[in-house]
Specification:
Layout (H helix, E strand, L loop, with lengths): L1 H8 L6 H12 L5 H14 L3 H13 L11 E3 L13 H11 L3 E6 L9 H8 L7 H11 L1 E5 H4 L3 H11 L5 H4 L10 E5 L6 H10 L4 E6 L13 E7 L2 E7 L19 H12 L5 H17 L5 H13 L2 H22 L1
Parallel strand pairs: 1-2, 1-4, 2-3, 4-5
Antiparallel strand pairs: 5-6, 6-7
Helix pairs in contact: 1-3, 2-4, 3-9, 4-11, 5-13, 5-15, 6-12, 13-14
Pfam families: Glycos_trans_3N, Glycos_transf_3
Pathway: Amino-acid biosynthesis; L-tryptophan biosynthesis; L-tryptophan from chorismate: step 2/5
Protein name: Anthranilate phosphoribosyltransferase
Length: about 350
């Protein structure tokens, strides 16, 4: 590990194989806490490359819990987080809309880190617990077409690395790799990062990891979601091609709204917001969700255009399909909870 730290401190980017070896040392506990911290800090100061992110994501996925799932065109719409916007849980809400529109959604998630309510915090408030085994998550995905993969269960070897990240107290390369380490084989992905300067590199990481089609967004105002508050930057990765573009809400028939209109609160408050959106209450929160769910449908290939995706997302809500999907997952969670008690 010290050798790789020295190379990085000299300003040289690590080749794929070098980063792969360094990452395995992180996960196999072959380095001390101090050595791990020095390596991650050095990477951050140098600036991470797409190759380094892809190699780490590949190694982290190889150390995750394996899933037995049938072949399907799965999508994850998890973002990197860390944008500091304190928005309500947009991607979690969008996941129900996507599933209601027929997409197979395998969504990564965790508890709050920088936000007031992380995805699992709001899922708890909705009645969806985190005590699922990997087999339970696989069943949920097969029976309901959607599953929430709780990161600490999926990535048990992250515990020690988490201690190092807490010790550093600043963003590291692990802030970028979370959405890239889904153990379910993904053909498609829609993800947001709050670094507009890195979206092309992030899309190229998706290509290295074997995604067939993926869409990366860095939202207006620093959001790691598509935003109504201005111009959003995108890169579409489609069969190896990287296509950058930009658009705002008005370009797709939606209205401008400042970020203050989608601010969230406690898990309970955010759960109430999710219910209001899925019940069809119009406004900036509704528009933000159909914008992002529409982009997810476009990324998955269900919709031929972003505009068509937004229309399908809107129909998923107004038809009641998205709300029924939430209710079905809550019922599944309750059933599994009863099985846990019975055990």
């Amino acid at each position: 590990m010290k050798n790789y730290t020295r190379i990085v401190e000299e300003g040289r980017n690590l080749r794929y194989k070098e980063m792969e070896e360094a990452a395995n040392q992180l996960f196999l506990e072959e380095a001390t806490i101090e050595e791990m911290g020095a390596f991650l800090v050095a990477l951050s100061k140098k600036g991470e490359t797409a190759t380094e992110v892809a190699a780490l994501a590949s190694v982290m996925t190889s150390h995750s819990i394996k899933f037995d799932v049938p072949a399907a065109r799965y999508l994850d719409n998890c973002g990197t987080g860390g944008d500091g916007s304190n928005s309500f849980n947009i991607s979690t809400t969008s996941a129900f809309v996507l599933a209601g529109a027929g997409v197979n959604v395998a969504k990564h998630g965790n508890r709050k880190i920088t936000s007031a309510a992380g995805s699992q915090d709001v899922l708890d408030a909705l009645g969806i617990h985190s005590r699922f085994t990997p087999d339970d998550m696989s069943r949920m995905l097969q029976e309901e077409g959607i599953a929430f993969l709780f990161a600490p269960i999926i990535h048990p070897k992250m515990k020690r690395i988490g201690e190092v990240r807490a010790m550093i107290g600043k963003p590291t390369i692990f802030n970028l790799v979370g959405p890239l380490t889904n153990p379910v084989p993904l053909e498609t992905q829609f993800t947001g990062i709050n670094r507009p300067d890195f979206i092309m590199e992030y899309a190229s990481v998706m290509r290295m990891l074997g995604r067939e089609r993926a869409l990366v967004v860095s939202g207006a105002g620093g959001l790691d979601e598509a935003s109504l508050a201005g111009q959003n930057s995108f890169v579409l990765m489609d069969k190896g091609d990287l296509i950058p573009f930009a658009l705002n809400a008005e370009d797709v028939g939606l209205s401008y709204a400042p970020l203050s209109e989608i601010r969230g609160g406690t898990p309970k408050e955010n759960a109430a917001m999710i219910h209001s959106v899925l019940q069809g209450e119009r406004g900036p929160r509704f528009d933000t969700v159909v914008f992002n769910a529409g982009l997810g449908l476009f990324a998955n290939g269900v919709a031929d255009s972003i505009q068509e995706g937004i229309e399908q997302a809107t129909d998923s809500i107004l038809s009641g399909n998205a709300l029924r999907k939430l209710e079905a997952v809550v019922a599944f969670s309750e059933h599994i909870g009863q099985e846990v008690v019975a055990r």
